[in-house]
Automatic annotation (TrEMBL):
It comes from the Bacteria. This is Mobile element protein. Residues 8-313 form the Transposase DDE domain. The lineage of its organism: Bacteria, Pseudomonadati, Pseudomonadota, Gammaproteobacteria, Enterobacterales. The keyword Zinc-finger does not apply.
Length: 349
């Protein structure tokens, strides 16, 4: 149910944006647990080796910074498990005739089943490929011509397939020189002075543009970090697996509702700022609320730099009737009152 609601909120955000093409990044992240939560198991957990964990599958829209869908999985689940089914669900819920979708994923999702699923749905994909010998042997062949690009990068293209694949597909190959110390070591292998990277795609982008476009996938990792640390997704503490799944979906619903709020109420330059930045600018403030003569007045510091934005937000929502700026002396008095109240609360505990 919560996943359906999340789809509806995302579609509302997508409609407001009027985008005709979007990029959906699919990635997974480990959530460490310290107890014996249902469904948690030992798996890839780099920060807490040997600990039980969950593995969450995320899908984010890069252009909107928005959560599309996702779900909690057991900690020992392989990265790509459930990805093909999730892609079908995404397309069924948001695809329209005037919307083009590109799915972007790392090498953990390099699987022909996933690629075939995307192709059958009429969507685009850009996936980092694993460096199998079938690809490396062709890329290091002396007959292959690489084109020089930016930042020491060279690119070329291959139309080939892996051993068990049904058909040829477009692979973009990128190579960069290894560090000088590594190149100094003698080798008999052709092309061994380079590091090679492979990408499979059905887009029409130029080879180097494919590589540059893939590198933007790092944004999704930042969105996941923001969800984990600013929305507390990294703390799933309930015993029941399905209760933790419900909590996760509610957290991500809050995440998207916050994006809707920013889209409607803030300047476009504020939209992509992180939640913690928003809190520092607009929430963690020394202020005083006064109710008088049917008015609600918020008093802020005279030097508060975002008062115009604050006025627009509160006035539009009819929450605050007036915002005033008080002098430094009044603000210091207000801060001392807040500090005294916090101190009394600590002693009461």
């Amino acid at each position: 149910m919560f996943r359906d609601i999340n789809f509806k909120v995302f579609k509302k955000l997508l409609t407001k944006s009027k985008l005709t093409s979007i990029t959906i990044d699919i990635d997974s992240s480990v959530i460490n647990v310290e107890g014996h939560q249902e469904g948690a198991s030992k798996g890839y957990n780099p920060k807490k080796l040997g600990n039980r964990c969950y593995n969450i599958q995320f899908a984010f829209c890069d252009e909107l910074k928005a959560y599309v869908t996702g779900f909690v999985r057991s900690g020992n689940t392989y990265t790509a498990n459930g990805a093909a089914e999730m892609i079908k669900e995404i397309v069924a819920n948001i695809k329209s005739d005037d919307l083009e979708i590109l799915f972007r994923m790392d090498s953990g999702y390099f699987d022909e089943k996933i690629i075939e699923t995307i192709e059958s749905l009429g969507c685009k994909y850009l996936i980092k490929a694993k460096s199998y010998s079938t690809l490396t042997s062709q890329a290091t062949n002396s007959s292959i011509v690489f084109v020089k690009g930016e930042e020491g990068r060279e690119t070329t293209e291959l139309y080939t397939k892996l051993v068990k694949w049904e058909k040829d597909r477009r692979f973009v190959v990128s190579r960069v020189l290894k560090p000088e110390k590594e190149r100094a070591q003698l080798s008999l292998l052709e092309g061994s002075e380079y590091d090679y990277f492979f990408f499979v795609t059905n887009t029409t982008l130029l080879s180097e543009k494919v590589v540059i476009y893939y590198e933007k996938r790092g944004n999704a990792e930042n969105y996941i970090k923001e969800a984990k640390y600013d929305m507390a997704v990294g703390h799933l503490l309930l015993k029941s697996f399905w209760a933790n799944e419900a909590v996760f979906q509610m957290m991500m619903l809050s995440y998207n509702l916050f994006l809707l709020f920013k889209f409607d109420s803030l300047d476009s330059s504020e939209y992509r700022q992180q939640i913690k930045t928003f809190r520092l600018k607009y929430v963690f403030l020394a202020a005083k609320i006064i109710k008088t003569a049917r008015y609600v007045i918020m008093k802020l510091s005279e030097n508060y730099p975002y008062k115009e934005c604050m006025k627009n937000v509160w006035y539009n929502k009819n929450i605050i009737n007036k915002i005033e700026c008080c002098s430094v002396d009044n603000l210091q008095s207000l801060l001392s009152i807040i500090a005294a109240k916090m101190k009394s609360m600590i002693y009461q505990k």
